[in-house]
Design goal:
The chain has about 100 residues and is mainly α. It has helices spanning about 10-15, 20-30, 50-65, 70-100; strands at about 5-10, 45.
Length: about 100
């Protein structure tokens, strides 16, 4: 099995998602997303899976006009919810296999 991992630079992220560079700097500053590589913002690389959360954070801040601390809190809660939903699906799948035996 081959695993393919995609990385995006900050410039690619800005162009693809129409997000301003300063907004991405704020997102990183508030710990909403972390670059996986790069010593300066010009060199940062982001995992493609992080783009999902960067887009959500940018949209929350832009649409609701809330500060970055609140955005970080909301994103953290959304990530916890997704984790719990995945765990719940996994347990349901295991339970279903147990009941069918």
């Amino acid at each position: 099995m081959v695993e393919i991992t995609l990385h995006l630079s900050i410039n690619e992220l800005c162009q693809l998602e129409c997000i301003e560079r300063d907004m991405i700097l704020d997102i990183v500053e508030y710990g909403i997303a972390e670059p996986i590589a790069g010593h300066s913002s010009a060199d940062w690389l982001f995992e493609a899976s992080t783009v999902h959360w960067i887009k959500k954070a940018a949209r929350l801040q832009r649409d609701l006009d809330i500060d970055w601390v609140a955005v970080a809190l909301v994103i953290d809660l959304m990530q916890q919810k997704e984790d719990l939903q995945q765990e719940n699906r996994r347990y349901r799948h295991q339970l279903k296999r147990f009941i069918e035996k």
